[in-house]
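Chain X:
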Amino acid sequence: MARTPKHPSPTKLIRRPPVLSFLDRLTQNMERFSLGQRQIADSLLKDPDDAAFWNAANLAEKANVSEATVVRFAQFLGYEGFPEMRQALTSEARQRIAKQAGLLKAPPGAAATLVEIARRDITNIERTVGQVNERMLEAAVDRLLKSRHRVMVGRGISQHMAQLLGYLLTLVGLPSISGEASDLSLQVANLGPTDLLVAFSFHPYSKETLEAVAFARERKVPVMAFTDRMEAPLVVLSDLTLLVPGENLMYSHSMAAFAVLANALATALAARDRAKALQRLRSAERVATSEFYQG
């Protein structure tokens, strides 16, 4: 009786770990950086697209460190050396530029542009609703409610978001301060462990905001972050992160999804004590309509 030939065992599939982007590597190691490495990271985050064209000497000069420190920085991030890190920077810069090139391709006609912007913002809102769950919202509401002081910081479009959330929180009885971009560190210096720093940072990420958050961490100040993706440098420095999609036809971040999220937070806070919230709103309305002054 002929023997059935044995088939060789199937080759085991080797699962290789995913290739981390430069920003992923930067984010994962942010808290381990030395002073010189932090200066290099700050320089790269400040000008991510231009950085793709720098050589080691250029980066060393901008970060005020030695070329040897730049090479060690690249190796610390897992690259063989500076050339490999620069190649990663160049590849990611090309991807960003290609994506940005399509953002300003609005359809012809103002009405068609309006429809396209609305369509994108509806998508942004749906993505926000899909990725912010009950636990995250309750944690954010609790943190806002229990903090002694609340300071909002951000630059550019982020500053407008900070002002909107600050206004809504004040409206429901939680006085908040929107920090000025030029005085972020000064605002943070007044906070302690029982306070809350609410930081907003969207691509391109503000160096000043990251520095303010790092300073807050040193002072044991809790940090709540609003940003665009989990790979953002703000995430590793925050205690609680809420993601806010905002792709639009311009180079800035759309505020539509954030406005929905901010209103949801304020409404949830008001719902914790509806009687007080209504009384506060009626008092504010009396002042606004001059009834208070007229007796």
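Chain Y:
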Amino acid sequence: MKAVAGMIICLSLFVGLAVVAAEAPDKIVYESKMGNVTFDHTKHVERAKNDCKVCHDKLFPQAKAPLNYKEKMHRVAEEKKISCGGCHHPGGPAFESKGNCNKCHVKGAAKS
């Protein structure tokens, strides 16, 4: 009986995670006067080896949380390791924002 209950719990957890993953958008476009930023959720999930906890809830408490990454916030986010700056900071696991503006900001990027 315990084995059956354990299997039901595991199956429910698996289905629940699959539903959450299915609801996540592939890409999210954040509008910016410096050029829109298209966040490729799928690529970030792959880099995190499908471990959603790398970013949620630590860096992004809500699935579609606003970045609140206004002008001159890059340095603050990198120093505090919040938002995109959680990974994109000097010495971090991803490129830092300084000198890499065009990796994220694209003039005329499509709106979603």
